[in-house]
Amino acid sequence: MSAPEIVGVVSAEALAQTGKAIAAVQLPTGEIPWFPGGHTDPWDHVESAMALSVTGFHHEAERAYDWLRETQRADGSWPLQVRDGVVEDDGADTNYCAYPAVGVWHHVLITGDAAFASRMWPVVRSAIDFVLGAQHERGEIDWGVGEGGPTGEALLSGSASIHQSLRCALALAEHLGHPQPGWADAVRRLGRALREHPEAFTPKSRYSMDWYYPVLGGAVRGEAGRRRILARWDDFVVDGLGIRCVDDHPWVTGAETCELVLALDAIGEPERAHQQLAAMQHLRDPDGSYWTGYVFTDDERWPVERSTWTAAAVVLAADALSRTTPANGIFRGDDLPAVEA
């Protein structure tokens, strides 16, 4: 299987090199830190594993998922932050704990590996049950769980990402013949909260993720999704560079730009999507990795790091736009079960 290619933007050879750059950071245990010597969190670890699957590094991707299986805690969660196997923050983020469902279903779509799906099912089931323990009756999900239980604070971008994770978990469950009607009810309630109850979430409208994640996570699509994206386009998009992470900072970030690309693809805006993927290529390093961000008023890359998850977001965006792998439509909702509103 060849890597994706976006003609005039990034070649298949270049993206294969990007996959190799991510694999080079992976530790012998399977853990994928942000960068050499950096820390690891479950969400970004999974994002990197997905890029490995897309670029043909299937063995490395499976090692990454086996690391999740081996490090999952008894309650279904993972620590918020580890470094080379040492826990640095033992809290649990519900969005982080839900995201392995997306990665596992993504790898199953690409490889068709039945043994892998069966091996990872208990991991996904336990993680999703943990996450739903923090769901409110209205549908929103608290972002974290500590010794005292859920935090009592739901974040829009995190809950929107969990919406995508729940749909992927349902797809895996149906694929394996393990229907989960409780999960289906949970995703319906979460979708309604995301669409109809903005008051349920702590306001963080300065951040671009709160702008596009309800679209990316699948809760808001069609004309409503297009209206949402266009309403704040000028607040976040910087011509020729990508998008701001925060609306009042002169700082564009590669991963957020590529996630916007995925959201644009999901609402049928391919021209805008291609433009944004092209715009962020100034962050590419000659070795195939990608710098996290760029402060355009100072003409400086910041932070001074080439993050695996930024590179991974580029690969996933290119796969979606090029329709290359069997999993290219995972963020459009292809191959995901329909959930009634």
UniProtKB/TrEMBL annotation:
InterPro entries, per the entry: 6-hairpin_glycosidase_sf, 6hp_glycosidase-like_sf
SUPFAM superfamilies recorded: Six-hairpin glycosidases
The protein depicted here goes by the name: Prenyltransferase
Starting at the broadest rank, the lineage of the source organism is: Bacteria, Bacillati, Actinomycetota, Actinomycetes, Pseudonocardiales
